[in-house]
Amino acid sequence: MDITGVGIGRGTAIGPVVRMASALQEPADVERDGKLDAQAEIERVKSSLDAVKSDLSARAKAAAQGDKGAQQAAPILEALGQMAGDPTLLDSISDLIKQGKTADRAVFEGFAGFEQTLTALGGYMAERAGDLHDVGQRVIADLLGVSAPGLPQSDHPFVLVAEDLSPADTAALDLSNTLAIVTTQGGPTSHTAILARARGIVAVVSAAKADELSDGMTVIVSAAKSLIIANPSDEEIQEARAAQASAAHAKDLRGKPGALKDGTAIPLLANVGKPEDADPALEYGAEGVGLFRSEFLFIGNAEPPTVEEQAKAYAALLSRFPGKKVVIRMLDAGADKPLPFLTPENEPNPALGLRGLRTLKAHKQVLEDQLEALVEADRVTNAHLWVMAPMIADQYESEYFVKLGKSKGLKFVGTMAEVPSIALMANEVAEVADFVSIGTNDLTQYTLAADRTLGSVSNYQTAWHPAVLRNIKLIADAGKAHNMPVGVCGEAAADPELAVVLAGIGVTSLSMTPVALDDVRAELAKYTLQEAQEKARRALAGEFYHCAMLA
Ligand code: PEP
Ligand code: MG
Q1: Neighbours of ion ligand 2 (CB under 5 A)
Q2: Span from the CA of 355 to the centroid of ligand 1 (angstroms)
Q3: 407: Cβ–Cβ under 8 A, 6 or more apart, which residues?
């Protein structure tokens, strides 16, 4: 049986399935026994909320002392603990108890109400609804005196199959025994995916049919192929072992600059989300930073950070890359990254609404403050700072931003290519921008008109589509004609085979999540420029694209 999903990373694993215990039953909606006093029930809930809060915060502390991957989970666990301590949540649960609900039912309904609010907000907030649900389940388990649904214990290495993993689960995962993770739900931005990437765990998420896998069944999990093979043949196992061996070999080139077999340089850069991400970037041999997503300073705050706060964070990143290129992206608020103080509520189509440069233009002070902070960070460090704005549609917007950036004192100012219109105007854009960086995640979503956050259209989310590749070629050709660098910083750059195609199309650098660097570097080294160009020709003709909708 072959099961498809969304692969995270490139790894391959072989091993027996261990399924995660299923969720708690929904508490029955029955009238509370008259003998149960409302105040006593409220006290029970308070004590369970406290217990869960303390447990999560103890786990956060333990995670903070763990390996790098565990450390990333610490703030998430701490935030979950805060959710359990939210007084408005306790108020609404208390109201439900006073109306006659049992404690466990009131907790269930109280959390469900908050989950619905988050889901309605969409995007990033909607994904946090799952976290809140997990906290609610823990509270109910505590009230009932049963163990919370969680990770299975096993004394042998296993492939974990679950609906989705909560942040608490991912933090507690015993890596020495976990060969791979398969989830039936959760998209490429779920916690399972984020932490699998950070810890380099083989994972395939959103594999709905993995429900059919049973305990003990042998499976091959191939993240590169986004595939799970149940009860594989000997030949399939041999093939998977060969893939594992070649992945182990990929590390050998670490530390060498990215290049094709004939020496054509393709610098390999890292995508980072906060200054501390410089650690994995350098560890995996990044030659600089190709995309710093500056949203982290803004998300979770009620107002924008000050110029000083921003300058400090940018300088912290830049100082880790002396003499190297660091591309910082201006705040990309809106759509899948809504910010309450900048993004309008109730946009019917947020992806087509106020985001990226459109948001910044509508909040000029935020735009100017960020530029000022970048100029200051550049002044006190000696990396090569490149700055770009997201969601630029054409040469007019590109020129607006480039001129503004330079008027403030930035030296190298460019444009992200995420909206297909920019590919059609690429020659004009190349006349005004210092560089273009192609965000294939959004370029794919907008070229194929398929919301990147929606599971129902996730099969459109592939830059192997020849229409996406042809848009990239229009931009690369314009770059070549005007001697303008054209990089790719979307997920496509992290797919080794696609990276070869992009190099063949004429892209001049590739930026990706640090753990993908080894595999991409090793794959590029297998092709001459001529061979990469031949592969690109075939890809542009659609030869490697398989339409999942018609399969
Ligand atoms: C992209 O769209 O490809 C990109 C790199 O930006 P983000 O994923 O942050 O929208
Ligand atoms: Mg984008």
Answers
A1: 418, 439, 442
A2: 12
A3: none
Average pLDDT of every residue of the chain: 90
Tell me the per-residue pLDDT of 396-405, one tens digit each, with 9 for 90 and over: 999 999 999 9
User: What is the number of other CB atoms lying within 10 angstroms of the CB of residue 271?
Assistant: 24
Task: Enumerate long-range contacts of 214-217, CB under 8 Å, 24 or more apart.
Answer: 214/17, 214/19, 215/16, 215/17, 215/18, 215/19, 216/16, 216/17, 217/16, 217/17
Ligand 1 pocket at CB < 6 A: 291, 293, 332, 418, 439-442, 489-490
Tokens coding 261:
């077999």
Pair of tokens at residue 285: 């041999």
Active site residue 191: yes
Q: Quick check: 445 and 451 in contact, CB under 8 A?
A: yes
Residues of the chain with pLDDT under 50: none
Q: Write the residue with the smallest CA distance to atom 1 of ligand 1.
A: 439
Q: 291 in helix, strand or coil?
A: strand
CATH superfamily of 254-550: Phosphoenolpyruvate-binding domains (3.20.20.60)
Q: Is residue 384 annotated as part of the catalytic site, yes or no? A: no
The protein residue whose alpha carbon is closest to atom 8 in ligand 1 is 441
CB 5 within 8 A of CB 230: no
Burial 387-412 (b: 16+ CB within 10 A, else e): bbbbbbbbbebbbebbebbeebebeb
Homologous superfamily of 2-21+151-249 in CATH? Phosphohistidine domain (3.50.30.10)
SS3 248: helix
Tokens of 392: 């630029």
**Among 124, 277, 293, which residue has the most ligand 1 atoms within 8 Å of its CB, making it the best to mutate?**
293
Residue range(s) in the chain whose domain bears CATH number 3.20.20.60: 254-550
| CATH class of residue range 38-144 | mainly alpha
Distance of CA 438 to the CA centre of its chain: 17
CATH 1.10.274.10 positions along the chain are 38-144
Q: Candidates 446, 489, 509: which one to mutate for ligand 1, based on the most atoms within 8 Å of Cβ? A: 489
Q: Indicate which atom in ligand 1 lies nearest the CA of residue 271.
A: 5
Start-end of CATH 3.50.30.10 domains in the chain: 2-21+151-249
Say if CB 278 and CB 314 are below 8 A apart.
no
The answer to whether the CB of 448 falls within 8 A of the CB of 499 is: no
pTM of the model: 0.69
Strand ordering across the sheet containing 178-183? 2-4, 227-230, 218-222, 12-19, 158-162, 178-183, 202-205, 6-8
Q: What is the DSSP letter of 389?
A: E
Q: Which atom of ligand 1 is nearest to the CA of 390?
A: 6
Q: pLDDT value at position 153?
A: 66
133, 156, 191, 249: which one is catalytic? 191
Q: How many CB atoms lie within 10 A of CB 533?
A: 16
